[in-house]
Amino acid sequence: MGRGKLVIQRIDNTTSRQVTFSKRRSGLIKKARELSILCDAQVGLIIFSSTGKLYEFANTNMRSVIERYHNTHDCVLQPIPADDLKDQLLANEITDLKRNGGLTRQENIELYQKLHIVKQENSDLRKKLNGTYKEHQAYQQPHKSISVQSDRYIPVRLQLSQPQPLNIDASARTTTKLGLQLH
Length: 183
Description:
By secondary structure, the chain is mainly α.
């Protein structure tokens, strides 16, 4: 089964973005290492994360790769002042926070709506449960006790049982029809 096509755009969820960055960074470094081994190429890879952290790979020495680049292009890279880099990173972070703030607000609204639906469902279930409980209570009314009037006290225990085949005398026949047995 194939994977669906992934739309290449910025990932808004910071956790998902960080996980994707970490996995893809590892994959990119692995590919650079494989290219250097398979093709005997001099490879240098420099990656800066959105937080400004540096990740690099070089199959030889990174300085020699950069010097070779300078010599090949016959140019000198001007170092970016640290303050400008920090300002740019902060501006990017502010933009991200503004975008995420709007998304967070929308997520909060959606979660509130779902919570309202769940509360309504709980209320409906409670009403159904209360109705069922009241019906159950109506069937559970106290049973009237049966008393035996006689001069002698005789303990009587009644027990419910399944009807038995009738192989006994007539007096027992009437009690088994009721499903009661005297012990």
